[in-house]
Design a protein that fits this description.
Chain lengths: 420, 310
């Protein structure tokens, strides 16, 4: 009897111990700009609070490379990574590999986030991932140089941008032979799709594929937008702009070698850091508009999802809930200009002090143009590649806008095949 | 298990002759290797052939539909071409890969031959030079490709800014392919030189002494003696390098990125279909096509030049 009791007691303690015992999770973080450090810090705070351990998996810099790696992990049902950082265009592609967070995270907490972003994360009623930060393309400019060349405000149209960039570039070239008027992301990858969608949308050229899955690229406004962008190369943008991603463009702007830059909000905090050559000389504005169009910014952003193959799902959900909470989003907004996905934080004084443009550009973030990942579903990547390749051909002078959009239309029909 | 089986079987066999016993023993000794090859090479190859006949997604390989040769050539009722052989981008990739292979292997052979002849002659510091020339080849391709990508950069690169004055070689596929041939030649010439050097060292030196006596010039000696005798070694080296160049991947992928690499190398095209687009069936079909292209080229090489691999 005594022995039996002892065994029962021992089992109970063991059970309790295993329930309360610390687990080790692996979190896949991005590594662009300050992302990695902020990701590590956030995970460390959660680990300290809960007594668990978090390993950080450093993902590749470019989003396409990251997706390739993740798909292999997920297809192999690997439990190596518990929490994935997911691009806003991926939920449709990867939904089946992630835990439904609906019901696991209180509805009130989910509903505090921008509805559009929560919708983008919901596939067939399943909440694939939680919004972590949102992104939209912005125009960065040098306030000191604008003043020096007699401009009082940033450009409102692409034509104005080209004129201003040319004047500043010509003036600065005397002292600095590598100075560029305008830098952006022209390498043939997902970032070029984002940049080009902004030009096209601001020219009134549509969104590649419309909401019903119809291919809308073969139109003169899209062709005009691509021709306009091609005219910037070697006039206001360096020839090598067609090999730049986010970090290459930022490197040039932040070392004081460019007047204008298109980039995501994260570049603000880095541009204002102590070692930046342009600290205190940066302004941020909405991207310019095309002739007769409205300015447009492509919706970006990253979310956190829990892998269905994770061995510690409960702890992983708790980590996601913690990292996407208002307190964590506030820290990330102040330290790294990562845009919160919670509406209320845009009124937070500490955040507005660190990022003065957040309040005035709120409409840019809330009205950002989504890439056609929803109507094209699993074929989004192919659509995006075909689009960025067509754009790249125009930028490199291999094709003119009109011919490129006609060919793109055929390519997309081919990809669509029997349907998206 | 194999070690136990061998002696018991060897005993009765001995009467029939030592040769037969040896042959049987050899099979047992080879068995682990054959199993290993079947598992690590045969099975993946079989799966690739298998999936090339299906329409399947990388993330859900279980749900697949049979297509036959549809991944290669298929036109829908609406006249939309879906097979990769109908994709102009694939043919651009094939053209660029062949250009890359022919030019880089040719240059590597010529430069490799010159270097091998130089380091084959006796001079002070020869041993050091032989080691030093292998440095570019010893650096992992991913590292050297990234290093060259920096050098080609138009705003801070040694080549792009310093020598070419701000030209972006990598921006355009047509100039990028030449930039990458340069990297490959820089990297692999020393390997070619090493293979040719091994061939040169096997040539008897008394033959050259006799030629000198007969008054043959160095030029005649090279064309009439060295080159014909070097032929077997040279051909093996050529086959090795051509195969390597045909499946080039890392240089293009690192220097140009996934999208552009898919129109400069066949393997880049295969990777994009298989990984980025998760088209397991189509990607496998492309891989099968690459396998066949390489096999045909090897057969042509081996039969046309009567290469002996021994």
């Amino acid at each position: 009897m005594k022995k039996a009791l002892a065994i029962v007691g021992l089992t109970a303690t063991l059970g309790a111990a295993s329930q309360g015992s610390a687990v080790t999770l692996t979190l896949a973080c991005g590594t662009v700009g300050q992302e990695l450090q902020l990701c590590k810090d956030g995970a460390a705070r959660w680990a300290k609070k809960t007594g668990n351990t978090v390993n950080i998996f450093e993902s590749p810099n470019l989003t396409n490379d990251r997706l390739g790696l993740y798909q292999q992990q997920l297809a192999a049902r690997s439990s190596d990574i518990d929490v994935y950082q997911l691009d806003v265009i991926w939920p449709g592609l990867l939904s089946q590999h992630f835990v439904d967070l609906k019901g696991k995270i209180p509805a009130a907490e989910v509903n505090a986030h921008f509805k559009g972003i929560v919708d983008a994360n919901t596939v067939n009623g399943k909440l694939v991932s939680m919004p972590w930060f949102t992104d939209a393309g912005l125009l960065y400019y040098r306030t000191d140089l604008l003043r020096k060349y007699g401009y009082s405000a940033p450009p409102k149209t692409w034509a104005q941008l080209a004129t201003m960039a040319k004047k500043i570039q010509d003036g600065e070239r005397g002292a600095n032979s590598t100075f560029a008027g305008y830098v952006w992301q022209g390498k043939n990858y997902e970032g070029l799709t984002c940049n080009a969608l902004e030009w096209v949308s601001s020219f009134g050229g549509g969104t590649i594929v419309d909401g019903t899955g119809r291919i809308t690229v073969n139109n003169t406004k899209m062709a005009a937008a691509l021709d306009a962008a091609a005219s910037w190369i070697r006039t206001i943008s360096p020839a090598g702009v067609t090999t730049y991603g986010e970090e290459e463009a930022r490197g040039i702007f932040q070392s004081g070698n460019a007047a204008f830059m298109r980039n995501w909000p994260y570049a603000w905090a880095l541009g204002q850091s102590a070692d930046s050559k342009v600290k205190g000389k940066i302004g941020v504005a909405p991207l310019p508009a095309g002739p007769g169009g409205k300015p447009a910014a492509t919706l970006g952003g990253w979310n956190l999802g829990v892998s269905s193959y994770s061995k510690n799902q409960a702890a992983a959900v708790d980590l996601v809930r913690y990292l996407t909470s208002p307190a964590e989003q506030k820290i990330r907004a102040i330290e790294g200009t990562y845009n919160p996905t919670i509406q209320a934080l845009y009124k937070d004084q500490a955040i507005l002090k660190a990022n003065p443009f957040f309040g005035s550009l709120l409409s840019v973030f809330t009205n950002a143009v989504p890439r056609p990942s929803a109507p094209t579903r699993g074929k989004y990547n192919q659509v995006s590649q075909a689009f960025s390749t067509a754009v790249s051909d125009v930028l490199n002078g291999k094709s003119k806008g009109q011919a490129a959009v006609a060919k793109l239309s055929t390519d997309l029909a081919r990809i669509k095949g029997r349907g998206f | 298990m194999t070690t136990n089986a061998t002696p018991t079987q060897a005993a009765p066999v001995r009467r029939r002759g030592i040769e037969a016993a040896r042959a049987r023993q050899a099979i047992w000794l080879l068995l682990p290797t054959l199993i290993a090859i079947a598992v690590v090479a045969g099975y993946p190859l079989y799966r690739t052939f298998f999936f090339s006949l299906y329409e399947a997604n990388l993330t859900t390989p279980g749900e697949r539909t049979f297509l036959g040769l549809g991944n290669f050539w298929f036109t829908t009722e609406e006249g939309v071409p879906l097979g990769f052989l109908q994709d102009p981008k694939w043919w651009t990739a094939v053209k660029n890969t062949l250009l890359f292979t022919v030019v880089s292997v040719f240059l590597e052979t010529v430069f490799g031959m010159i270097i091998a002849l130089v380091v084959n002659s006796a001079f002070k510091g020869r041993a050091f030079l032989r080691t030093a020339m292998l440095v570019p080849w010893a650096i992992p391709t991913v590292v050297s490709a990234q290093m060259w990508a920096y050098m080609y950069n138009d705003s801070f690169g040694l080549v792009g800014r310093g020598i070419l004055g701000g030209q972006a070689l990598l921006a355009d596929v047509d100039s990028a392919i030449w930039a990458m041939i340069a990297v490959d030649v820089w990297k692999t010439t020393s390997f070619m030189a090493l293979l040719i050097l091994a061939g040169l060292q096997s040539l008897p030196s008394d033959m050259y002494e006799a030629a000198d006596m007969d008054g043959a010039s160095k030029w005649t000696q090279f064309w009439r003696m060295t080159l014909p005798l070097l032929r077997p070694a040279l051909l093996v080296a050529l086959v090795f390098r051509s195969l390597d160049a045909l499946r080039v991947f890392d240089i293009m992928y690192v220097m140009l990125g996934a999208n552009t690499a898919s129109s400069t190398s066949m393997t880049g095209y295969a990777r994009q279909a298989l990984i980025d687009n998760s088209l397991l069936g189509l990607g496998s079909a492309v891989a099968v096509a690459i396998f066949l292209i390489i096999m045909v080229i090897v057969v042509i090489y081996v039969t046309a030049f009567r290469v002996k691999f021994d």
